[in-house]
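Objective 1b of the project was to move from sequence-level analysis to a structural picture of ligand recognition. The entry below was assembled by the postdoctoral researcher (A.K.) and checked by the PI before modelling. It contains the amino acid sequence of the target and the SMILES of the bound compound, pyridoxal-5'-phosphate.
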Amino acid sequence: VTGDPSALDVTGDFGGFDGRAWLNCAHQGPLPLVAVAAAERALADKAGPHRIGDQAFTEVPRRLKAALGRLVGVPADQVILGNSTTYGLHLLVQGIDWRRGDEVLLVAGDFPATIVPWLPLAERGVRVRLLEPDGGALDAGRLAAELTPATRLLCTSWVFSFTGQAVDLAALGRECRRAGVIFVVNGSQGVGAAPLDLSALPVDALVGCGFKWLCGPYGTGFCPWTAAVEYLLGIGVDRVAARDQALVERFLQGLDPDRYRLASPRRGPGRSTLVVLGHRQPGRTERLHEELAAAGVDVALRRGRLRVSPHLYNTGADVDRALEVLDRRTAPVDSR
Ligand SMILES: Cc1ncc(COP(=O)(O)O)c(C=O)c1O
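Corresponding predicted holo structure:
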């Protein structure tokens, strides 16, 4: 495995994005062409259901569970298929034998899907407490200081959608195990972009969506997603992660620190595949988002910052296209 982004050339495996640079996987991952073909077959089968054999009812979910299990290091029978992150968290909220006085810890600023499902527990006498860690992401020291005898469960995202920070799952999980606290992780912004082995981590439950870094469709849990997950497994998540990090590195190297302030970590274990940045000049960030779009570069604008999130199908040239716009001293003259 090499960190050279050119080492993994998979651009022919994806649809081409009409010539645009899709640097927005943290919003939507594209279906690989093998999954598009699987979706077309599934549509044809549903239009003529006489083609669907009875064995599909068991075979389709079995194959997907096996692929997801391989991806995160658990046996297939420990995988539950749902249609969203929110659904997975609702299952946990409903499935735990809560006692009045229990406490659930969450992190302020986390993505709403990680927070909202727990809030109705207040009606059952369970206290839901939002931690506000310095710098936004929770570390083990702060968690240890916040745990009380009433703490029953901690839920946090692995990678934070709005800051791009990755938390240390091993350290947080160890703290939870020590205190007998259930540790729930939302892996939506990390699984598929970085390796995760639950057989070696003190995590009790992992939830996530399939439509970002796992390159699946919305409402996942049917056959085109199996094709996408099997496609990623075929390449190997280690290689995907190396390529993604090389693209992130290329972007960060090209970014002018005098003009841009990073909200995501520049280096170290907290760095993910989400680079979050703002122009130091007020109002400029929003305009840059439009200028990037006009130049054929798709990134997200989230909470007043740009979020750049490259994945395996991107090239160094995509990153350079973004940098070219971010490097301009002045906005282009409006030709209208
Ligand atoms: C951290 C995180 N979790 C979950 C989701 C999506 O939630 P759901 O699968 O419930 O639609 C997103 C989407 O942006 C996200 O960033």
